[in-house]
Design a protein that fits this description.
Helix content of chain A: 55-70%
Order of helices and strands of chain B: HHEHHHHHHHHEHHEEHHH
Mean pLDDT of chain A: 87
Oligomer: heterodimer
Low-confidence stretches of chain A: 1-26
Helix content of chain B: over 70%
Largest interface: A-B, 22 and 24 residues
Shape of chain B: globular
Structural class of chain B: mainly alpha
Distance between the termini of chain B: 65 Å
Strand content of chain A: under 5%
Strand order of the largest sheet of chain B: 1-2
Strand content of chain B: under 5%
Mean pLDDT of chain B: 92
Radius of gyration of chain A: 35 Å
Radius of gyration of chain B: 23 Å
Chain lengths: 415, 358
């Protein structure tokens, strides 16, 4: 099996330069030497940006992608007989990149744990399918990664660095570029205002998802109805698992509705609030469950109990705060309060099971803990009152004793 | 019946000798008599410390895993546990305060003069023991503030010339503050220091009994006979009025300002804001803080420690430096030194607390 020209040509150049470093000055790169002097910026600009390109940093030259003979100072360097290929066409780019990036053995020379590009995965993407159909306005590798100044994806300057991904996608997914197509173009505006967008773009939280975390990157497709809970579940594991097993999930699938998105939305997903759990106009249940339906009745059972639990917690917190301000030790009550708050978090997850029995069990546990925390607060305040009474009584006894002693001294010394 | 019992006990214990001693002991009465009560007040508060300390010992567990929880248990689950702990903590502070008042009044009344030099030295030893009790006890609840205050305190000790490194490792039981340090401090607090304190306190009380109360130099020089009161019962009853007042103050402080537990020590967290030592170390802490980083080519902290050490030695040797009658040029110089020391200690302590944060 002979190595591909795209792989061995830069390798030879690399080996040649490594060996020569000990013996003689590095050979000139005629590609850069000539192109640097050209007036046409389209041809000269790559010589500047390529200097910081990850390929150049790793010792790979122009010939890796374009072929030719870099040690030939004449125009014959670009002779097709010397393997010169020129600029690849848009339909060739992915295959050209894959010739190295899909080769695990080759990529391991540069990184022991390399990302291995899969052409098969890329072919599943809408982008690749459109390219295959001859659509020239669809993204290929260079549209996202850049061309002659490609940076590693972990470099904050890279267009595919996580924080930069939404802006990179929006370069094409906007109303102007997508004119004449049926693809929605408001995703970026919605995403920026979403809880995910704010976390990633405003707070710099790199654990927040960018476009590719839900849609995939090289195999980018819109998640289908069935996969939504799996997509959301990759981060929201427990909610995704409970929802996937729920009857509601099955019903939504049968109706062709898109799981999580039905209640939470997709690109504009906001911080969920407890007010969402209601069959009334302020909640999301009423969108599907008509008044008097089993779903609406279940919501009517859950909502008041949930509110009562939260009120109890707030009361307990307030009591403990008062006790703390009065100098009382409330750590036991605080611990119970925290456990009860944990049950609220648990409840918010268990709600995704859409099963009344486990929901009520969690609410009962949370209420029990909140009641105990409340009792601790009351006890602390009762103790505080008792201490004051005790202090007043003991001070009274002490004052009486002091007066008695002073009286005795006076009587004793007057005789 | 009681007469026969008393005779039986007297025959075996020699109670008559004690009674004779108590009857014979007198306390001079003059315009400075008030200051004689502070030694008894310190002793009373020490007694409170012993009783409450023993009660706390019934529940306290000295390990990094259990210390904080056991103190929390004392404060929340044990009947009157909160009161015992609060009284122990407040009484410790009042005791050190009373000991300082006793020391400064003794110094200014020049009660350290011959033949009371050893009484003075043993009293200074007792004050040092009180500070050691305070320092070792502060860490025992194993909360965040105590942990980092002890870290800073032992670091300052570590800057002592020549023996600093040894002292630091001796106190910490290693390079860092760990559960081993807590166990060690507990050992100091409940075994080693009480044993030493019992001996030194015994010596101090014996010497006070042997030499009686000292008269200030001015009154002593006048040579006129002074009125006096019997120690038992006149002075003792007045002492008891003071002790009851102290008990009332302790009840008031414990009920209105119960001693906080704080949050459990976490060696891996950053030091909490506003960290500072207990008030009785405040003047030394403030002195070290205000010094420049280098003085005459030496580290500022080192110069500060040497200066405080030198001042302490001069203070300790006052009985041997002063005029035997406490008058004349040397007498006035020592008196001025006492006033300066009081102003310095009070002033620098107030600076620490006025700023809120050290």
């Amino acid at each position: 099996m002979s190595p591909r020209p795209a792989a061995w040509v830069p390798l030879l150049a690399l080996l040649a330069s490594t060996g020569a470093a000990h013996a003689a000055p590095a050979p000139k790169n005629s590609c850069l030497d000539c192109h640097r002097t050209l007036d046409d910026r389209r041809l000269s600009a790559p010589t500047v940006s390529f200097a910081q390109d990850i390929h150049a940093v790793r010792g790979l030259g122009c010939v890796g992608c374009h072929g030719g003979n870099p040690v030939d100072p004449e125009m014959t360097a670009m002779d097709p007989d010397h393997g010169f290929k020129g600029a690849p066409t848009r339909t060739q780019i992915a295959e050209l990149c894959a010739s190295c990036h899909a080769d695990a053995a080759y990529m391991k020379r540069f990184n022991p744990q390399p990302y291995i590009f899969s052409m098969a995965e890329f072919r599943t993407s809408v982008h690749c399918k459109k390219i295959s159909e001859g659509d020239a306005k669809v993204a290929t590798c260079t549209n996202c990664h850049g061309v002659h100044g490609i940076l590693p994806h972990k470099d904050p300057r890279s267009p595919v660095y996580r924080r930069n991904v939404p802006a990179t996608c929006s370069k094409c997914h906007n109303a102007e570029y997508m004119k004449g197509r049926t693809v929605p173009t408001n995703q970026y505006a919605l995403y920026v205002s979403s809880v995910h967008g704010k976390a990633l773009l405003e707070k710099g939280d790199l654990s927040a998802p960018a476009c590719n975390n839900c849609h995939g990157n090289h195999g980018a497709v819109p998640p289908n109805t069935r996969d939504i809970s799996v997509v959301c579940g990759t981060c929201h594991g427990r909610e995704g698992e409970l929802f996937a097993k729920s009857k509601v999930s099955q019903t939504l699938e049968l109706e062709g509705k898109r799981g999580c998105v039905t209640c939470h939305g997709n690109h504009d997903v906001q911080v969920p609030s407890d007010a969402m759990i209601s069959a009334g106009p302020e909640g999301v249940c009423g969108r599907c469950h008509a008044a008097g339906s089993p779903g609406a009745k279940a919501a009517a059972v859950i909502v008041p109990r949930f509110q009562a639990l939260k009120s109890r917690l707030a009361e307990a917190d307030s009591l403990l705060n008062v006790a703390e301000r009065r100098g009382m030790e409330t750590s036991a009550g605080r611990e119970l309060l925290k456990q009860s708050e944990d049950q609220i978090l648990n409840l918010r997850a268990v709600l995704h099971s859409f099963d009344l029995a486990p929901i009520q069990a969690v609410m009962a546990e949370g209420s029990g803990l909140a009641d105990r925390a409340h009792r601790e607060g009351l006890l602390a305040l009762r103790d505080w009152r008792n201490r004051r009474i005790g202090m007043a009584l003991s001070l009274g006894v002490i004052l009486v004793l002091m007066a008695g002693l002073m009286l005795k001294i006076r009587r004793m010394e007057s005789t | 019946m009681s007469g026969r019992l008393r005779a039986w006990l007297d025959e075996r214990l020699g109670l008559e000798a004690f009674r004779h001693l108590a009857e014979k002991k007198e306390v001079p009465v003059h315009r400075h008599t008030f200051w004689y009560y502070w030694g008894g007040m310190t002793l009373f508060l020490f007694g409170v410390q012993v009783v409450t300390g023993i009660l706390l010992l019934l529940y306290y567990r000295a390990s990094a895993d259990e210390a904080y929880e056991s103190v929390r248990f004392i404060m929340t689950q044990v009947s009157f546990g909160w009161l015992i702990r609060s009284i122990h903590s407040w009484s410790a502070n009042l005791m050190i305060g009373a000991a300082m008042v006793h020391m400064f009044s003794t110094f200014l009344m020049k009660a350290y003069r011959a033949p009371r030099e050893v009484t003075w030295l043993s009293g200074m030893g007792l004050l040092a023991l009180c500070l050691a009790f305070g320092f070792s006890g502060y860490l025992l609840p194993w909360n965040q503030l105590a942990f980092f205050a002890t870290k800073v305190g032992t670091e300052i000790t570590g800057a002592t010339p020549v023996i600093g490194s040894f002292l630091l490792r001796f106190l910490r039981g290693g390079e860092h503050i760990t559960g081993g340090t807590l166990t060690r401090f507990f050992g100091f607090h409940v075994a080693i220091l009480p044993a030493i304190a019992t001996v030194v306190l015994g010596l101090h009380l014996y010497l006070v009994q042997r030499h009686g109360m000292s008269l200030p130099p001015g009154l002593e020089a006048s040579g006129t006979p002074r009125p006096a009161m019997k120690f038992v019962p006149n002075f003792l009853l007045r002492d008891m009025v003071g002790w009851l007042a102290a008990l009332g103050v302790l009840a008031l402080l414990s009920a209105l300002f119960p001693w906080e537990l704080g949050i459990k020590a976490d060696p891996y967290s950053s030091a909490p804001a506003g960290i500072r030592p207990e008030w009785y170390f405040g003047w030394m802490f403030q002195t070290l803080r205000m010094l420049p980083s280098h003085i005459l080519g030496l580290e500022g902290e080192l110069v500060g420690i040497l200066g405080i050490g030198l001042g302490g030695v001069i203070w300790l040797l006052a009985p041997f430096l002063d005029d035997p009658r406490g008058i004349g040029r040397r007498g006035r110089l020592l008196s001025a030194l006492g006033v300066i020391a009081i102003v310095y200690v009070v002033g620098f302590t107030l600076i620490v607390y006025r700023r809120g944060k050290p």
